[in-house]
Amino acid sequence: xxxxxxxKSFFVREEEPGQGDCVRxxxxxxxxxxxxxxxxxxxxxxxxESFQKK
Amino acid sequence: MSRRSQWKQVADGMLGGAGKVRxxxxxxxxxxxxxxxxxxxxxxxxxxxxxxxCKKLKVGSDIKVDPAVYVxxxxxxxxxxxxxxxxxxxxxxxxELIDTNGNEVNDPSYRRAQRQMxxxxx
Amino acid sequence: MVAEPARDGSVQELENKQEWWWVAEKKRxxxxxxxxxxxxxxxxxxGNYAPGIKLDLxxxxxxxxxxxxxxxxxxxxxxxxxxxxxxxxxxxxxxDHAQLVGYFGSLPHTIMWRVDGAxxxxxxxxxxxxxxxxxxxxxxEKVAKLNDYWAGQTAVDKVARILDPEDAVKFLSGxxxxxxPSSAYGYxxxxxxxxxAGKRGFEDIIEDIEAAIxxxxxxxxxxxxxxxxxxxxxxxxxxxxILVLEAAMRHAKRYARLAxxxxxxxxTDDKRKEELLRLARxxxxxxxxxxxxxxxxxxxxxxxxxxxxxxxxxxxxxxRPDYYHGPYYDKDVNIDKTLTKEEALDLVGEFxxxxxxxxxxxxxxxxxxxxxxxxxxxxxxxxxxxxxTDACNDLTIAFLQAARLVRVSNPTFGFRWxxxxxxxxxxxxxxxxxHGLGYPSMRNDPxxxxxxxxxxxxxxxxxxxxxxxxxxSPCPTTKNGVQPMRxxxxxxxCAKMVEYALHNGYDHVVGMQxxxxxxxxxxxxxxxxxxxxxxxxxxxxxxxxxxxxxxxRYKDPEFFGRPFLSGISQRSVESGLDVVSPxxxxxxxxxxxxxxxxxxxxxxxxxxxVFDEKKYTMEQLITALKANWDGYEQMRLDFVNNxxxxxxxxxxxxxxxxRCLQATARHSHVMKCPSGNNWPILPENVSGNIHYASIVGAxxxxxxxxxxLYDGGISPGPGLDKKGPTAVLASCGKIDHIADGRAFLxxxxxxxxxxxxxxxxxxxxxxxxxxxDLGLDHVQFNMVSDETLRAAQKDPEKYxxxxxxVAGYSAHFVDISxxxxxxxxxxxxxxx
Amino acid sequence: MKCTECSYEAGVSSFRYLYNARIDASMTLxxxxxxxxxxxxxxxxxxxxxxxxxxxAPWGKSAGIEGLARDVAR
Lengths: 54, 122, 832, 74
Hints:
The complex is a heterotetramer of chains A (54), B (122), C (832) and D (74). Chain A contains no helices and three strands. Chain A is mostly beta strands and 54 residues long. The mean pLDDT of chain A is 94. Chain B has three helices and three strands, in the order H-H-E-E-E-H. In chain B, strand 1 and strand 2 form a beta hairpin. With 832 residues, chain C is an alpha/beta fold. Helices cover 50% and strands 7% of the residues of chain C. Chain C has 34 helices and 19 strands. In chain C, the strands form six sheets. In chain C, strands 5-6-7-16-15-19 form a six-stranded mixed beta sheet. In chain C, strands 4-10-13-14 form a four-stranded mixed beta sheet. In chain C, strands 1-3 form a two-stranded parallel sheet. The longest helix of chain C has 35 residues. Chains B and C meet through helix 1, helix 2, strand 2 and helix 3 of B and helix 6, helix 7, helix 9, helix 17 and strand 12 of C.
């Protein structure tokens, strides 16, 4: 089972071990942006359509 | 009955839905003779959750029971939802023109802009 | 990207053709152009949200999860924890080219949903077409589940349960007023003096709170007595304030981290990389610490607004950006020269754009009443300093210039005019109006300062800090002057006063005895009987609305709770009370008087044609009104054309206006707010004149049920001001703009052709001088031609950027309903 | 009254009343209950005059002072 920590979109929070941010680029019909959502590094990434192995 | 008690009854009729848990079926189903298809239905201009007034019946009426109870006099009109079942109501009159265009503004008599009514009218 | 190419032709050619939206596109920077077009517009088109706008389920779910988890906490603490959970976990984003960040929904196209506000609004969200995120069925199930959880325990449900049942039924009929008696749908003023003038970051505030806690604890561990008992609640409140302020700082740091991640991992352009690192430093500084430069100052302000909106559905945006951010502009641009004027203009424009993109799910009546926008973001510019000197600065000018480049319909500006405003600033105001923005509205500052002192007893220095709390009403930004909850449910559909006076208090639209039985009008034998009936209905209607909202305000700390707003308000930081508590609030209430002038024209028409000329009997009139004038067209035209109408300098009708206003003003001193202060009226409409068109019955001014009501305030009926602009001003000048009410909205339509060039500016300036000399407090202008507006109706996509002044706000013409559009076109174009 | 589009015929009040675009004129907008077209109706004559579509203004231009502005004078 893969975890978020193994994903290209995962960025660890140095000051909070185990915690990280899932940062992804999105292009919608009006604008392009980077979005960020908190995740734990040991969270399962199964079922995540955006998972990309580092 | 005191003034407060009388109005409490009216308020309960009007606000009764606020604390009520509803099923998806209750939310989605628009019966063949839904109040929203009736000429006597007038949307509430404040709560646009689909409630409205019956232009014929007053508070105390009950069109869910068989035979329906009709109260024709009183302080306030009966509150009904757009998708309440009006099949047992003798005052149900089908409306020819139902306006589901929510881009135009409030018209209590004709407009029914709910997603469910949009589907039902189409 | 949907960016449309700029129209062919030079800037000069486009200016000559007065195609200002194409001019703006050509003149603004690439950054502003991108950001302006990137906005997902949240204002409803008439009553419906635009395609692609979706309900934000993420924040609603996060909030509900934590609210449910902490069910045994006191309400302030419970809300603080739920808000903190949202701020810590919601999705955040940074748009390409952006230098300012912060949105209260999770993604750019989402509208925040105040799930704890009102069950009926929640059910409306469920029924709303087009806004469910895909897959729709899954979203509907989520929304249904949330609705079932909140059913009966939202803020408005709680108030509705304790209202007098008769008041509740009549208020919720939708016939006599709108708004919600809860700060869940608030219009909160911000204590800018504490935050900005006081140069406090959240860390400083937490120090202030901790000092207050320490002082309070001396008592809770001391001698027992009744005076210490409520301190325990205050300690909980203080803790809640600290908790939410800390969460807010963490939230800002999430943006800082994202900006750094982008700069270090994705960005290849060196310039953008540096911008992102600056953005990171900005979000590390504010809101934790006070700002050091213009970007940080804007960012701080924007964060404050966003956090307040995560806490409550804010319907307005009281702000005075040139005054509070001006010193940083001066430092960066003029002194340190770390920013060029062009760079500063980009920041100012983006600051407006960040506000423009904000929008939450609003009930349909609010969408219809504010068509095209999501709330009244009326920002205040100009005015005076506390010592009475001119407060205009370089940033005032920059805002007026940026507005013409970004052309947003929200925020708009209200300009505090006073005799010392420099010509260069007046020219900038005029250019915005000439470019068809419909703003700034012009406000008479000396008069409104006096008005604030008269009605609410604000001391002079505090009154001089005033900002528009919503569209129109001034409110100070000081500890005791700032109002945490605009009591918007005292918004009266005033045309009902005369309607009820004519129908013995009965409402034929909702089929209910609403007002008191003041007698069958068909038996009235003189005008005084009708006027007496009108006065009784006026008092009944205003009493009911004020009772309702007073109770909502009083119970709000128990039913809702505002830990964040309290945490940024000096009086709560000092007292430990929820800021919505009336304690320490001087009171700044007003009754928004929609559909006011119909009363005047209707009363005048009855006086003239029934009682003076005896051309018709009261019985004939009542019969015609009950028939909605159907079959009485000739008579209706008589009541329109052969009765005097407000706005023509005709004492016959103007005296009735003064009489009605004075009767209401007397009653305004009788009704009191929870702080014991007065309730003056403020005639204005937003687009409530359209929302109420099918709810107000036929009236003696000649309207039928269904017709748009007048566009509001003290504006004459569209097309009925036939004697020119000076006569309009003369009529309006007969009102005492201090003692007769809180403020009075006046719409005027001017000809873009007549006001072209230098001559046009001079004409307008002379008009403003006359307006001020006559003692009016407000005027705003539409300056777009019939040709353009009709063309925009035919080809909306081509004219998607045309802006018009609706009432106390501006909207893109294509976003308002056809009835509203026609109502605006019908207004008289005045030659000045 | 007869609908100019679909010839539906009924009393004036059977046509949904929309609004009166100029309060001082007897032209109103009503909607045909059959074909739903918006119609300009002469209330004095009780007759539908024409269909109204986007941008049409059968009641004329803005009210106001004639001749002072180009767009008004036209």
